Amino acid sequence: MNVTAVGTASATPPTRFSRILPTIPGYALGGAVFLAILYLAWHLQDERVPKSLNILICLLAATFGWTIGILLSPKNRVEKEQFLVYGKSISAFVSGYLLSKLDPLFTDAIKAGPPATVVLSAQVAFFLACFLLGALFVYIGRNI
Description:
This protein is an all-alpha fold and 144 residues long.
């Protein structure tokens, strides 16, 4: 707090660094979790699934999360209006087309037996974890 010549106190606005500092442990933990997920994705053993596919799932999910994180944190009124239109389009695509394409994938995995079900479950977990990390990283970063 600064004191002016007249004797009134004025608050010093926080610097960008002082706003970022509390988020560093969270970003470090999130980065460690992301690296652990990539490690697990690489070492998931199944002869039918190449290791690179699991890594691709993680990167794709993080990218989707990144996009959703941006849409959830508009910086101004213009962005907010644009993001509402984008959000409606994305939700229509996901709820209509994409979910209908996922049903046969799960049905086939269940018919194939436990190994395929375990692999698919792990891949869904990789996707969800990376998606959420990507969305959180961007959302927090845009709201600092």
